[in-house]
Write a structure and sequence with these properties.
single chain, mainly alpha, globular, cell membrane
Length: about 425
């Protein structure tokens, strides 16, 4: 039974994508170790803040189209229709990329985004990545919708290798500015790599909007949900910047987040693979019930083992590489790993809801949990500092778990009634 189960997820490309994601994180981890010796803790904190703000505007540029594409292109339809959906998606993303850059520049000009002049200076330049990163998310969603998981894994490793090599060279030669400009170049090259593997006649395909009636609805409500999610996931960094926390502590917090993100590799991998399959079986009650339970249970022991390994790795790195002055990284990491374990308990459920097209209700859940984490993080910061912000994230994840689980139970019962 176990053998058949492992063969099943292997054929779906789980281990290929998981392996590539771990390899990507391994490269990224090596990069962080390297940057820790070249850049100061303050500079590491600055690049994290820049990346967090830019992620918001990249998400704005996608306008939820990547999720709408993943949903509609994973449905059973002719290949030419799927290509036409991609074409439509590209045009929308490019349009909103222009709006996103304009919005970023306006907020910076008015002084409404950040009080840090260095971050403001570099955000103007870093904004170049917005259209390229948005297209990258779009192309990933397209290949996932086609279930070409092995190609997704290959592209990710290739792009990350280019990214790592360029950053190593430019940061070593030019420091912080080299890191910024090499990142911009990497995004551009990554988009080119994806584009080369698309049909050259892509822009000749068209689709009647009546065949994808819910596309715009999926995109809009996904956009709202994703914006709120991005704010929620980065609210700790936004808060630390807004509250003008000690710059070195933001750097320590940013290093701890790298280990937290490495743990989330399993979560993201599982979600990206499971969503199209839930979409295909959205009316099959028995399949939905059995597979959700099976995959969600599998996530928990994986996550426990990963969190223990990550803390051990962080302990070794901090004590034998960075030095005692970075010991605060380990203290912060404990809070972040608790948050990671909570997130892993609803990862599959959240992906299943997207696959079922439950977008509207998910937005309210994300909004509630984000507001909770921001409010609590803000309040606790004045007593607990960066740890208070981390606790706010934990509370937000607990709220997410409760509400997402209740929402899925409601929809699975609804499907059961129709199924019977």
């Amino acid at each position: 039974m176990i053998k058949n189960f492992l063969e099943n997820i292997y054929n779906k490309g789980f281990f290929h994508l998981l392996g590539s994601n771990f390899l990507v994180q391994f490269f990224g981890f090596g990069l962080v170790l390297f940057l820790g010796k070249i850049l100061s803790a303050e500079e590491i904190g600055n690049i994290k803040i820049i990346q967090s703000y830019s992620l918001f505007f990249i998400t704005f540029a996608t306008f939820g189209v990547n999720v709408a594409l993943l949903k509609t292109a994973s449905e059973k339809r002719p290949k030419f229709e799927k290509k036409a959906i991609l074409k439509k998606s590209i045009v929308i993303v490019l349009f909103f990329s222009i709006i996103s850059i304009f919005l970023l520049f306006t907020l910076l000009k008015l002084g409404l985004l950040t009080k840090n002049e260095d971050i403001e200076y570099w955000l103007y330049r870093y904004s170049i990545v917005i259209p390229f990163a948005a297209l990258g998310y779009l192309f990933l969603a397209y290949f996932q919708a086609l279930k070409e998981i092995k190609n997704v894994a290959k592209f990710q490793v290739l792009i990350r290798l280019i990214f790592i090599v360029l950053i190593f060279i430019f940061t070593y030669l030019y420091g912080f500015s080299g890191l910024i400009y090499s990142t911009i170049i990497s995004y551009i090259l990554g988009t080119i790599i994806f584009f080369k593997h698309l049909d050259r006649n892509l822009f000749k395909f068209n689709i009647d909007n009546s065949k994808i009636k819910k596309f715009n609805s999926y995109a809009f409500f996904s956009f709202i949900g994703m914006i709120i999610t991005v704010v929620g996931k980065n609210s700790d960094i936004y808060l630390l910047d807004y509250l003008e926390a000690v710059k070195d502590e933001i750097g320590y917090y940013s290093i701890a987040i790298i280990f937290f993100m490495a743990g989330n590799v399993i979560n993201g991998t599982a979600q990206s693979i499971i969503t199209p399959h839930f979409s295909e079986n959205e009316n099959n009650y028995t399949w939905l019930k059995n597979n959700l339970l099976k995959y969600q249970i599998l996530m928990i022991p994986f996550s426990i083992v990963v969190s223990l390994c990550l803390y051990l790795l962080a302990y070794i790195v901090v004590n034998y590489y960075y030095g005692q002055e970075y010991s605060q990284v380990l203290d912060i990491l404990i809070y972040l790993l608790v948050n990671y374990l909570i997130i892993s308990t609803y990862t599959i459920t959240g992906g299943a809801l997207v696959g079922l097209g439950v977008i509207h209700s998910s937005i309210y859940i994300v909004l509630i949990s984000t507001f909770s984490s921001l409010l609590i993080g803000y309040y606790l910061f004045f007593s607990w500092g960066v740890y208070g912000v981390a606790i706010g994230q934990i509370i937000g994840s607990i709220v997410n778990f409760i509400l997402i689980t209740l929402l899925f139970i409601y929809h699975i019962k609804k499907i059961k009634r129709n199924y019977i």
